[in-house]
Amino acid sequence: xxxxxxxxxxxxxxxxxxxxxxxxxxxxxxxxxxxxxxxxxxxxxxxxxxxxxxxxxxxxxxxxxxxxxxxxxxxxxxxxxxxxxxxxxxxxxxxxxxxxxxxxxxxxxxxxxx
Amino acid sequence: xxxxxxxxxxxxxxxxxxxxxxxxxxxxxxxxxxxxxxxxxxxxxxxxxxxxxxxxxxxxxxxxxxxxxxxxxxxxxxxxxxxxxxxxxxxxxxxxxxxxxxxxxxxxxxx
Lengths: 114, 111
Hints:
The complex is a heterodimer of chains A (114) and B (111). Chain A contains no helices and eleven strands. With 114 residues, chain A is an all-beta fold.
């Protein structure tokens, strides 16, 4: 099956700094990628839809100026958490696929903000 | 507002027996349902899906049942195998819009 990678798998940063997470589709092109966040014992929550060559679409309640998404190529989308705070500590996971119902998920990135 | 609910956070089943994972939803407009399986340190992988026009879909050892009147779906795994031990997520979508996930059920199949 298709492979989606994420980098880094785990990152620790200090409060107030920014962190960039990469999501790559390794063997297919993805015009659309999705970014999710999962807090402990909660479900995967869609944060935004990343569209290649255009602006991302953010879900209600997600600050677009805090979670910057760039989808510059058909195989790479990045999520930058700006001015991170401890409450941003979470598990961030991306997905990509040919259609909404055939999504391949990355392994996720665990962000810890100290 | 948790529109997709998996009320059992964990389930243990003996190898060879049936595993039944349950999922309830509140949005009657959902028209497509999916199950994903997730191993530790990996992303979820698609397992099986069902459209709202059906009430059953089968794929090998996995069968999903949909009861629209009860807003309930279930995943049956028969026979259960140790390799099935994972977290299972139920998910739903409305009109090809975003996919809404449940909180997951951790299945342990005991050899």
